[in-house]
Amino acid sequence: MRSWKLSIMISLLIVFSASLALAQFRFERPISLIVPWAAGGASDQTARVLAGEMEKTLGQKIAVVNQPGGSGSIGQKGVYDAKHDGYTWAGNADGSVVTYQTLGLLDYPSHKDWLHYYAIFTPIVITVPADSKFNTVLDLVAEMKKRPGEVKVASAGVGAGGHAAAETFRKATGIEYKHIPYKGGYPAVVATVQGETDTVMQLSLEVADMLRAKKLKALAVMSKDPLVISGYGEIPPVMKFIPNHLPLGYLFGLQIPKGIPEGAKKVIDDAFDKASQSESLKRLADQKACKAVNIRGKEADEAIESIGSIVNWMFQDIGQAKKSPAEFGFKKP
Fold first, then answer.
1. Considering the entire predicted model, what is its pTM?
2. What is the CATH number of the domain that holds 142?
3. What is the Cα–Cα distance from 248 to 224, expressed in whole angstroms?
4. How many distinct structural domains can be found in the chain?
5. What tens digit of pLDDT does each residue of 267-307 get?
6. 180 Cβ partners below 8 Å, 6+ apart?
7. Cα-atom radius of gyration of the chain, to the nearest Å?
8. Cα–Cα–Cα angle for 64, 65, 68, nearest 5°?
């Protein structure tokens, strides 16, 4: 009888201790948030707003550091290789994290090795320099067919959102283009503004300000519905001109390695939920012509699988995948 009672008391003590640990977890030093892209892009802007808001809940400084290179894979791997204690995070897009293994940029980690937290959804906008001779997306297509492989398209690098957008565009139209990679979405946008490239198919978050400033001209948005940017106007959907074009957009936020203490995960979940509902995040979405969301847990895992299937099989179809998407569990759409 005593043994039975003792076992119950020990079990209750273990449960109580675990609950107490969850309730009492506090970050005791600053957190490092690595953005594996250049400053100014969608990953960077989203990460900095989230960091500023989550600091209020966590009670610790979140230091945002840009570490561009390898289409974001270098900084992403560095985060995963750090101790899984909840103190090192990544700030990246879903569409990038899912491509690193398929494109041969990383052997590990996979998209399944992360806790995903997404706060911003942004569609792709096809833009050209303000003084460009192209006034519609069909003008651009005609030029690309006239000069195959010569029209320069900027992006944040191989496998990045803008590159996937350009390949989606190529597949829908049958054109060929010259890919010019940069170290982030913002540098790619600036290069197009300056006339280094002919077009950039980049995120609404990264081009909204340049459109308002009349430094870029929008030809179409890669969504089924028009995109209205305050201070600029309405951008028609690409399907209006190219009916078989697929919609494309990306989620931006945080990735934290799995295996962190459960107490740390619980407080991060709470801080993220509050940050995603903050006025700062809503203001970013309004200013940058994108949508504020709160996607984590199972919903985030499902979103990752969905975008991964789309972009990885696209890269497989065009011969740029180094390994089959099936190897990493991506179902063919």
1. 0.81
2. 3.40.190.10
3. 9
4. 2
5. 999 999 999 999 999 999 998 999 999 999 999 999 999 99
6. 152, 153, 154, 155, 188, 191, 196, 197
7. 22
8. 135
